[in-house]
Input
Amino acid sequence: MEISGARIWITGASSGIGAALARELADRGARVAVSARNEQRLGEVAAGRMTVVPVDVTDRAATVAAGAAVRAALGGLDVAVLNAGTWSRFHVEPWNSQAFADHLQTNVMGTVHSLEAVVPAMLAQGSGRIVGMASVAGYRGLPGSEAYGAGKAALLNLFEALRGSLGVRGVVVQTVSPGFVRTPMTDRNRFPMPFMVEPEEAARAIADGIARDKAEMVFPAPMMLAMKVARLVPVRAWTALTATLARRGLHGGPSRRAG
Ligand SMILES: NC(=O)c1ccc[n+]([C@@H]2O[C@H](COP(=O)([O-])OP(=O)(O)OC[C@H]3O[C@@H](n4cnc5c(N)ncnc54)[C@H](OP(=O)(O)O)[C@@H]3O)[C@@H](O)[C@H]2O)c1
Output
């Protein structure tokens, strides 16, 4: 698709990947609207050249209203990048169902609310594009990622299903699955993060993927290769690997609670 002139809404654009992507798409000539909860940071990202629509995506009604506000401000909508998300490591002891629910409420239901905010209008106009932010963390179960990974696996499945159901109605669905990107989300981590890339590099990969109509964007290449192979590893071997990680406290073990 042609990015120059496209009307694009990005959620989770007050920092990290979303902020870098907003700048990248604006640099490429798109008309961009940015959303997240922190209005001040959104204003800094927008720098007077984007529309700012603050919203908490866990609030269904507010998110639907934000979608309408974006359409009104931009005179319609061509692309919605559903990127808002959160991560913190899950601990199995003490078990914390609320922490699990909080992940799903932001990462899964926040995306579902955002879809409600854009899909009806896109179906009515018979065109549009959803760019959904998942993660390679959704590919396989990893200790410490019980809540985050389960939500991202749900999103991978959701976007794949929508690629069929919305695709036949003229709405393109693209899935983004990054490896590690240096953002406030990963700055807190105290475990090894191989093949880490800067948010600007992630933004370029996503913008290129949008322009080239890629169904799936997985980057960087070494992480794509590693995680595609990981998907093929038999359950017994994966169990042995994740047990080693858990024992060493690299992901979910008890010895590194602070990360
Ligand atoms: N960094 C990585 O290594 C990595 C890898 C794979 C996938 N991802 C995914 O990429 C996306 C962006 O993450 P990031 O790494 O760029 O982290 P980040 O810098 O922490 O950005 C997260 C964004 O989501 C927003 N957000 C969080 N909760 C929200 C809510 N309830 N309502 C509205 N906005 C909300 C945050 O803004 P406010 O706090 O202002 O609301 C922020 O703009 C996430 O979906 C993440 O899962 C990241």
Remarks:
- Residues 252-259 have pLDDT under 50 and may be disordered.
